[in-house]
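Bump. Still looking for HCF101 protein C-alpha cells.
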Amino acid sequence: MQSLGLKVGILDADIYGPSLPAMIPPDAIEKVYASESGGIIPLQYEGAPLMSAGFLRPGDFAAVRGPMASAMVQQMLTTTEWGDLDVLLIDMPPGTGDIHLTVAQQAKVDAAIVVTTPQVLSLVDVEKGIRMFDQAALANSIAVKIPTVAIVENMSFFVCNSCGAQHEVFQRGAGEKLAQDFGIQRVFRFPLDSALSRPGLPYVLATSESGSMDEFRRLASGAIAAVEELRTCFQPGLRLEVNGALLILKTSENQEMAIPAREVLLECRSAKMRDEFTGKRLFREEDIPQNVVATKVSTAGRYAVNIDWSNSHKSLFSYDLLAQVAEASGQVWHAATASE
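Sorry for the wait, here they are.
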C-alpha cells in the first residue's frame, strides 16, 4: 500500500501472541515511549508507525484475562499517536472474542479481510468470523457491522523447487467456495513458502519480483478498491423478499423474478445438503417438504442473504446463485409490481 502512495500504520492486536516484533529486524526495535500529552509514540519502521503489545513488554508473555486484553488493545488503538494516516491495518487474533468486539466498537472499521488455510477446520472458524462482523450483533448496545471484502487463502499450494510445478497441498477450492457462499468478490492465494514467514525482514521489503509479490500487489490494490466502493455507497442492486411460497428477487431497476421457495432450498450449498468439494447432494429430494417456505431473510455481507426455513434448516445464498436458480427454473425478469 505504501508503494501505491498511501500512508499506512499497523496495529498488532494479538495480545497473547504478538507477531509484529518478529517480522522486523531486531536492531530496528526500540522501546515505545509516552508522549508529553500522555499518548504512546509508536515505533517507526520504513516510514510506517507500528504498535504491538510485544513492543510494550518485549519477550514477556501475557497471562491476562479477556477484559484486560481488551483494555490493552483499546489503549494501543486510541492513545497511540498514529499521525496522518490513509490506512490503519489491524492484525486481529484468531477467533471471535472480546478483542474483536473492542476493535469494532472503538474504531470505525471500513472493512475486514479474512485469512484462512484450505483445511476444513480453519474454514469453520473463518465463517464464524465473517458472520460475527456482518450480522450487526449487539455488544454493550453497540452495533458491530463490518463487511468482509476479501479472502486470503494461505498455504494454498507449493511450487516444486526442481520442476517448478504447482502442487495443491489440500483439496483446491475451499477459499473460492467460502467466497461464493458469502458473495465475496476477491480471493487471493499464497503458497506454502518458508520465505513468507521468515523472521527479521518483511517479505515485501526483501523481495522485489516473484509470484507472491504479484499477489501481494493484487491484494493491496484490491483492498483499496473495495474500501473505495464502500465509501461511494456501492450496492449490489439486488434484494430478496418473502411472499408466501415464493421468494421475490428484486433489482434496483424495478425488475423482479419470483422463485418457488422449495426450488431455492433444493439448491442450498450448506454442508448438510451438499458435499463441500464435489457439490454432490447429501439428501433425497422427496425428504424436502412440498410446502416448505422461507420464514426469515436477512442480509449476509454485501452480496448474500441468510434464509431461515419452515423445516428449521438455514441457508446462505449469494445473489448470483439465487439468480442462477431462478433462471434455471425458467424464470425471467419483469417489471416489479407496485407494493401496497
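Confidence is low (pLDDT under 50) at residues 136-142.

Edit: fixed formatting.
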